[in-house]
Batch of 2 targets.
Target 1
Amino acid sequence: MGLSEKEKKKQEKALAKLRKRQSKINIEKLHVKKNKKRANGSTAGTVTIFIFLILLGIFMIFPLYYAILQSFKPIHELFVFPPKLYVLEPTLVNYESMFKIASSLWVPLSRYIFNSVFVTVVITISNMFVCCCAAFVLAKYRFPGSGAINKIIVTALLFTSNALWIMQFLVMATLGMIDTYWALILPSVAMPMNLFLMRQSISTIHDSMIEAARVDGAGIFRICWGIVIPNSKPAMMTLLIFAFQAAWAVQGGVLVYSEELKTLPTIMQQISASGIARQGVTFATAVLLMIPPLVVFMIAQGNVMETMANSGIKD
Amino acid sequence: MAKASAAGPLKNQGKFKYTLHMMRVNAGCYGMMAPFLILFTIFTIVPVIMSLPMGFTNFNMVQLPKFIGLSNFTTLFLNDDVFMIAVKNTLVMAIFTGPIGYVLSFFLAWLINEMHPVLKTIFTFVFYAPSMTPSVYVIWQLLFSGDTYGYFNAILMDLGILNAPIQWLTDTGYIFVVVLIVQMWISMGAGFLALRAGFQNIDKSMYEAGAIEGIKNRWQELFSITIPSMGPQLLFAAVLQISAAFTVGVVGQSLVGLPSTDYVAHTIMNHATDYGTIRYEMGYSCAICFVLFAAMLLVNKFINWLLAKYLD
């Protein structure tokens, strides 16, 4: 007994040692070694890189910061020369007057908000639904035409709605969709990028799971929504972000000319068109508009990184 | 997948019958694809393909399209001086937002990758935030405003560099640079995200092996390990960047107006918009779009070829 206990202790010790070493290899050795190497390379290099990153970061974030800042400045601080990069007496007066201005518009603000929320919700949900269904089939089944469709999707990543909208305008005019909610919603539903990301993510799921469900008698729709999609939460969150962003930025443009059908970005245009006197209000609107996508992104950032990791194009 | 094997014996009965059988077996697949395919066809495939035949017509949205042969294309390349300006501007902007933006976002992703997770998150947010903002141009409009309330004017005048405010958005000497800056600002976006994720994908043991093999500095590590193992991500980011690079102009349009003073910031997209929605010469506009699509496809093919050559 004594011997075996001793042996056990020995074993445990050895195991602990091994674990320690392994964790050292895993965590410290790799990183410390890399860090050391980096330091050896040049401390100056690291500092330069950091300065470069910070400068670029300032360039990227400054306009957003300035917009947020201006939206909280009272009128006497807005027009100080030269403009200050801080605010002494933050106020919500710009936000209040935004609602005041908006309520005196011909179409009430609530209608714009409704349009924006309605369009965003419908696009986001239908986009995710449609892309998931198609992505699942493309990732896991081979059928006549699947290869061609896959190729077309990869090519279609090139053609963003930026480049397409003039031709889309013609198509929609032919279909009689101009000046309806359809014109706002339908073009943003079938998004090649979302389909592509979802397909890449689903193809990493094991076939055995699908096979098991199939043997149990689940139909293709059930397999997709009961098994596969619940197992690709990160990808779903990513789709949510991209769909939401696209939907939230939807503007009528030339597709919609009735004021009652326009979305929130249009309001911002109207207010900003009134020029310098409403600078604070314009920024208040801009800030309100940029908050929803930023919040959605912050919540789901980790998931996005996980999904994008599978996004590579392989031929 | 698994269903395909059930059709084994049928394979001998001719390719057509086999295909038909497979289509029947996989009917569910087509059902699942249908909603996407229908919308995708209507709003992406038809617009892209239709741009060619429509480019051969004279169409003003009121009368029926009239076939006029190659006349749109010959006018475009031989007689349209503004189009040539647009091509030049698009190319210059595409070089900045395309290759330079691509390399820049690659390096950013690379630098950020070696940082502490918290810093990583912060920097990712900072660099991606601009591409999520729908109100881009309003912010820049006021930063570059032509009076002394515009931020840049005020700062430069306060420092004594300027005596009078500069009309950033209407002075032909500055418009192009301003649009370029804003374009760079928003073009980091999705390509940057894809690349950043690509770095996380790389097998850490590769670096260990590299260190043993005698890789000395991070540049060597970058070129012999990191880039070769990121091929697919590089391609994906390249596709996104090309598409962004060739469709520049949408932001500029709201920033400096359409057309901009003396067409100094006029891009191919702006040109198409001009003819499509202002002059209602749809046939001509379609011809412009088709040239743009063709150019994008060619560049995409070229990048594919280039990356494939380097990566294999």
Target 2
Amino acid sequence: MKTQQEIDAILAERRQRDAKIFYIDPERVTAADAAADDGIAIFRRKKLFGLFHAGTEVLPCIYDAIEPLGDAFYLIGVQGQQALYDLTAGRFITGYDVAAVSRSAGSLRLTGADGKCGLLDTYSRAMIVPPVYDEVGDLNYSSPYVWVRRGDSFHYVRVADGCLLSMPMLVMAFDGGDGLYGMRSDGTVALFSEEGTSLLMEYRRRCIAAGGRILLQNFVRRLEVVADVYGNIIN
Amino acid sequence: MKVSKSLLNTLIKECCRGLEYDSDRRRHTFVLARDIQRAYDNCRSAAAAQGIEFEAFDFNRLTSAIKLIPDAGREVSLNYPLTDADLLPGEVVEIATPDGDRRRYLKMQALQYVSLSTRQAYTMPADVVFDRGRELTDAEGCHLADMDTVTLWAPDAMSLHVDSALMPGLARRRVADSLWPLAEMAAALGPSDSGADLLRAACDCGIGSHTLSLIIEAFQA
């Protein structure tokens, strides 16, 4: 894997070469964001790709691949390595160490070359979960939290400010709930405060209000559990 | 023996006939399979199919746990004052009095409880609080107990497994607002009656085997 300096050197050399062949008109490859049709297009000059907006060059034709991800985010490839580019902000928001990007509700799920995952909110355009975790939950606008896994333990990240909320030895966490629910190593579920304290009475009240059962889901793991008022999993 | 949930469900179905009348206990309870040797053989085969060793010791442990369901449970200490709204119908409050006496009250519906020791029903005052150091009185002001400690008597693991095996769909049911119809059904059940309808009715009320056993104990015997 090439370092950022090596990539920069390759791009600098390509930029010089591209400037010398300015007289060759770049060929429009595709509308970069066909759904938006806002004048953004990918162009190609001599096998290398660039990005243009309303006829103006945004990224020169010096990249091996440009893949539109929607919401004006692009995956830019150089010699088999990829980086994420935000056209709205006009800047790269990662280095060339992105192995894969997939879309999930309102977010881009990033997997780094080291296998670590992160989450980028496509609405606020902020990296709410940096790609340093082994697994990340789905972003859900009804929940102020998203779960993350490091090793065998699950924790939460507060979406508003990206703060990691360390939880006490959770073996599972859940998506989209109205709080920090987690499964402990004894197989029971509980509701936790941001400080990681079990909120027994609050859990009990929520469970009673829901008819004696709480439904918790982990969309990434395709897991659905129903818990009773004591936190026992009963499905 | 470490088993998967689905295997345990299979084992429970092999070992337990469901809710039937037990002449020794003189009430409906979760009774064991009649042909216990066959149940054991079937359990061994089911476990072997999943590459799990299943010995007589495991079988005995499983059948003992099923037999003990009416008496089994675990104490849950919340260390918070509990109002009536903090409890679901079917939950049991266990009160230890200063003289060491233990009394269990099963919540039947809002403010209505049955003493599992005296089988007497009580209506509690609207502001009832189960909390250590307080006095428990009924709605008419009659003294019931001085509360030294207050705990909840929750279902144990085996009851939950039995629910999962014998009461499909229970997890999706809301707990009913009142358990009196279930109690009346349990009281009306005769020795020759099958417990299948009662088991189904309990499931419809969102009530598992733990609470159902307590209701039967309070209203049938």
